[in-house]
């Protein structure tokens, strides 16, 4: 058993693409944790989807050994997800560390998530080892980046190490700085067991694999343990380290990081942030900071073909086993029939789940536009949480309509400040402050409605700043807003799945934009299809899709039958993601038409 004085627990925090995974690979290589042959690019990002998207979604951990000044050190590297949707998991992972390597790209410099991550590490009282990566780049600007780090992150420029995770230059020094600067874990191996669950993954054969950091005491194979939050007891079947493959040991003691396998069949029985202690006798105190994952974004998922409902449920059940932070419950829509209301941590999380569904289950889905959770106080004094615009009561019954507000930090070259300020002002953001990181880069902070941020703020930021701006946000709370439910009527019928919540002052512009988009997306029919947007009984926009009789094969002059067949096939494809409502065929894309903000139109005028 390694004495705590020779253990170092740390993570690498960085903005996306600053080279976290590459550095992790390099450290594993230096410590001989993986042989060259075994070493695949980006070993830590081992989920296929993570690799596809090039981002780290789930935290992982790896134990490395390194001989330094006559002692064998055990170095536990805990990987943290870099995206704002997974902030809670980041915070749990950081609780398990005593130090963090703060990695900054020597060309890009300090970005929004660098600041957010550095603050998170400081909040957890971690020793920060500042490192500038990619110094091999010919256009690297090390002096300016050092200055930015000193200025924004309260780090002394002379403490900043330089390395190239790509060439390996300076990486050994990073490892040694971790040993020298990061404190050894505290904790008593003879005390009552107290360990933090910071992650869990699902293995088809072994069930839930729980990642833990032992704070106090020792956990042994065969021991009966208790998850204090969940209140369940289990027997430890296997435990060990990740090297990065699982390597079984007999015990894990205070200060160590590793895994537990306890014959747990589903991941929803394992809560990230929960405390593991003894099943018999007086358990240890619960570790602070536990909270239920909060779903911020919701959307409806419906099978295009009602027959697929059961299949969709099975696919969703399977997904929840792997990712309990995603939730779903059945809902019915007059327009779309039977489907599910699904809750996600954020927009990226939603995209990931959708991709998995499409990859793993062959079902055609209709997805409704995403929305945030609203809080409504009714005239009768009741407070309700609303996850779907359909559930918003009539205007007359609402006393107060509240929405989530977030504090958004943008980091960008100073020449784009004006553009982003305008973007935020157009969305009724509240200006908080501007901080200059250097003469050419600044951090701009605004409070905005989450609904205005999640849909397209990231895309807008990228286009306004030619890709140079980055952003990050944190939830501030709920605030009353001038919100209304806008309904869409197709052929006089309200399509519940098309209702949205928007600011009263934007309603006219948005109503017109949505109706215009719907007119483009809904194909012509044999009859006229009137489209209307309405608030309560007041119609705010209308358009007609005129009738048409269309014979698609007519163009082929009756000749080539194979061409005709191709056209028919194509038509069938087009029908796939279509939903027949009343007598009107509405394609999938139309359900997202409600995301139209009308901003583009405003600009053209
Ligand atoms: N030139 C150069 N490129 C590097 C260096 N380190 C990483 N890169 C490249 O930078 C890109 C991003 O590196 P990753 O290691 O995937 O970045 P990451 O921070 O793990 O990204 P996320 O997982 O998305 O947070 C890759 O194309 C790497 O090859 C370096 O030292 N020099």
UniProtKB/TrEMBL annotation:
Protein topology in the membrane: Peripheral membrane protein
One GO BP: positive regulation of translation
Keyword Cell membrane: yes
Subcellular locations according to the entry: Cell membrane
InterPro entries (alphabetical): EF-4, EFG_III/V, EFG_V-like, EFTu-like_2, LepA_C_sf, LepA_CTD, LepA_IV, P-loop_NTPase
Alphabetic keyword roster: Cell membrane, Elongation factor, GTP-binding, Hydrolase, Membrane, Nucleotide-binding, Protein biosynthesis
Main location: membrane
Ligand binding (GTP): 17-22, 133-136
GO cellular component annotations of the record: plasma membrane
Reactions it catalyzes: GTP + H2O = GDP + phosphate + H(+)
Record has Nucleotide-binding as a keyword: yes
Pfam family, one: GTP_EFTU_D2
Family: Belongs to the TRAFAC class translation factor GTPase superfamily. Classic translation factor GTPase family. LepA subfamily. Belongs to the GTP-binding elongation factor family. LepA subfamily.
Protein name: Elongation factor 4
Natural source organism: Bythopirellula goksoeyrii
């Amino acid at each position: 058993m390694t004495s705590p004085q020779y253990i170092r627990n740390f993570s690498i925090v960085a903005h996306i693409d600053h080279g976290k995974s590459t550095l992790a690979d390099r450290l594993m290589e230096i410590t001989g944790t993986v042989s060259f042959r075994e070493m695949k690019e980006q070993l830590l990002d081992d989920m296929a989807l993570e690799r596809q998207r090039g981002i780290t979604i789930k935290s992982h951990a790896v134990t490395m050994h390194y001989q330094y000044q006559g002692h064998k050190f055990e170095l536990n590297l805990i990987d943290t997800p870099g995206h704002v949707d997974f902030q809670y998991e980041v915070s749990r992972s950081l609780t398990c560390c005593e130090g963090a390597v703060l990695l900054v790209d020597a060309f890009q410099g300090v970005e929004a998530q660098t600041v957010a991550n550095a603050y998170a590490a400081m909040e957890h009282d971690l020793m920060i080892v500042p490192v500038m990566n990619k110094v091999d780049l010919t256009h690297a600007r090390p002096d300016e980046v050092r200055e930015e780090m000193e200025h924004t992150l309260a780090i002394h420029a002379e403490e900043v190490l330089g390395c190239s995770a790509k060439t390996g230059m300076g990486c050994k020094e990073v490892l040694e700085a971790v040993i020298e600067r990061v404190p050894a874990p505290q904790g008593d191996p003879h005390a009552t067991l107290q360990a933090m669950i910071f992650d869990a993954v699902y293995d088809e054969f072994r069930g839930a694999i729980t990642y833990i950091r032992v704070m106090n005491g020792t956990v042994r194979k065969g021991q009966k343990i208790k998850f204090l939050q969940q209140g369940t007891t289990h027997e430890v079947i296997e435990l060990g380290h990740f090297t990065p493959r699982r390597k079984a040991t007999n015990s894990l003691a205070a200060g160590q990081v590793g895994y537990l396998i306890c014959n747990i069949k589903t991941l929803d029985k394992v809560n990230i942030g929960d405390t593991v202690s003894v099943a018999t006798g007086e358990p240890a105190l619960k570790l602070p900071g536990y909270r239920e994952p909060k779903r911020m974004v919701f959307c409806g998922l419906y099978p295009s073909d009602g027959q697929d409902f059961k299949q969709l449920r099975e696919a969703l059940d399977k997904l929840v086993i792997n990712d309990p932070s995603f939730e779903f419950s059945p809902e019915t829509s007059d327009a779309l029939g039977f489907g599910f209301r699904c809750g996600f941590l954020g927009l990226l999380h939603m995209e990931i789940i959708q991709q998995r569904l499409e990859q793993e289950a062959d079902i055609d889905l209709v997805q409704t536009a995403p929305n945030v959770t609203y809080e409504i106080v009714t005239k009768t004094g009741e407070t309700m949480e609303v996850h779907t615009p359909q559930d918003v009561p009539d205007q007359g019954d609402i006393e107060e309509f509240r929405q989530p507000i977030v504090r958004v930090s943008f980091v960008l070259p100073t020449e784009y400040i004006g553009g982003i300020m305008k973007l935020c002002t157009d969305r009724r953001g509240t200006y908080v402050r501007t901080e200059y990181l250097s003469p050419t880069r600044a951090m701009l902070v605004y409070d905005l409605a989450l609904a205005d941020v999640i849909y397209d703020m990231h895309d807008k930021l990228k286009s306004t700043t030619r890709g140079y701006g980055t952003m990050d946000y944190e939830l501030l709370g709920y605030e009353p807003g001038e919100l209304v439910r806008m309904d869409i009527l197709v052929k006089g019928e309200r399509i519940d799945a098309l209702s949205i919540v928007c600011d009263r002052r934007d309603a006219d512009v948005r109503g017109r934009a949505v109706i215009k988009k719907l007119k483009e997306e809904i194909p012509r029919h044999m009859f006229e299809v009137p489209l209307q947007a309405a608030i309560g009984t007041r119609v705010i926009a209308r358009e007609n899709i005129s009738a048409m009789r269309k014979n698609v094969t007519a163009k082929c002059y009756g000749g080539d039958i194979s061409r005709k067949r191709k056209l028919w096939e194509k038509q069938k494809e087009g029908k796939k993601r279509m939903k027949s409502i009343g007598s009107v065929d509405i394609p999938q894309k139309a359900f997202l038409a409600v995301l139209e903000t009308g901003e583009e139109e405003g600009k053209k005028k």
